[in-house]
């Protein structure tokens, strides 16, 4: 009996010690969390209550973050703070706020947050690509080199314009082969737009039926889908979770497969590379890598070639093809707009000659429709996150150095103080009283400032030539047995239309 009582007393003592330890660890963890989250800054933007460990992440629908931001904006104003675990985030809303940050405080807001979730792709020191690279010497050298090389290979020149016009012809031929049957335009448009960037980066285009090409496009789409949702935000905010074996491989399987495919394309390219003859962007980058230590210091290495190439695909293909798909969808839903565009095309170009960029000046209505597609389609609603390079003030609020900034571009493109009918498809937003084209300053689909989209110039050219060529050759109608397409879109970094079928009637 005494032995039993002794054992009971020992167990009771042990349990008491465990309880005390548990309470201590709980208090310590909560105190640590509080210290990580507390802010001593005055004039810091307001925001929702931050919960232990997860911060304010429960307030955000990461599948439609721009909608969550618009709700919070009504309560806290155009600038408010959030907290992803222990990462301080400030969301900027409305044209005046975003302009002040990206244009007037351009360098202050030019940095990018570090993305630990990309490390398994080769992302790291001196290898950050361009789009998400942190602001500094290497980013400046890479961006300067990329823009100058793209110009050498025709960006902004007639040579690239002719290439786009030729690809528009291939696209029309592929649509003709559908013989008026209902079809999903997504695949053919993706192929056409992606071919333009493939020609520039790898020196050649793919046939639309090429299996490798289909695989490339599918892998790229999968990789974008993995960027959206709660999990990527959590892994970047708490990078220690990425050290759990197998987590990056399972969470970002599509990204890894896409980069593996890029490796295959680059390796094949290197087999035929001749340093004396520069065929395309890849050759130019390889040639720069040969310059030794100075080039290495500027980020010219194999890992960066892979990442810059992936950036060019993202900047030069998916946003443009998605915009074109929104454009055709709006023509289905607004046939009167489609008829007015076609009438202008017939008057200025006719039905035989291929459109050129010179025609744009003489086609204010078509130009207005394309811009309204970009505005109302709201393709990149929240842009890519910025990070403050140093302490700065915005609208009277202090934004400390190292704060992640989210630019709610959707709130700019649909700012009620700027646009007459912000929530309607209304091409007259871009026409003056005399029917001439005008572009309001709040038109920022490519963002603005030092981090403005790398592919903006190419995208503008592609949108005009592809869109005009398609409406020159076809009238797009909704198949009789199909429901009215949805307009809300689905978000995965890029907001794209839900799948829909279309009939292309030759003109």
UniProtKB/TrEMBL annotation:
Binding site for heme: 453
Native source organism of the sequence: Limosa lapponica baueri
A GO cellular-component term linked to this record: cytoplasm
Keyword terms: Heme, Iron, Membrane, Metal-binding, Monooxygenase, Oxidoreductase, Transmembrane, Transmembrane helix
Pfam families given in the database record: p450
Protein's UniProt keywords contain Heme: yes
Ranges annotated as spanning the membrane: 15-34
Protein name, as recorded: Cytochrome p450 2d17
Known cofactor(s): heme
InterPro entries listed in its UniProt record: Cyt_P450 (IPR001128), Cyt_P450_CS (IPR017972), Cyt_P450_E_grp-I (IPR002401), Cyt_P450_E_grp-I_CYP2D-like (IPR008069), Cyt_P450_sf (IPR036396), Cytochrome_P450_fam2 (IPR050182)
Gene Ontology MF term list: heme binding; iron ion binding; oxidoreductase activity, acting on paired donors, with incorporation or reduction of molecular oxygen, reduced flavin or flavoprotein as one donor, and incorporation of one atom of oxygen
GO BP field: arachidonate metabolic process; xenobiotic metabolic process
Membership in a protein family: Belongs to the cytochrome P450 family.
Cell location: Membrane
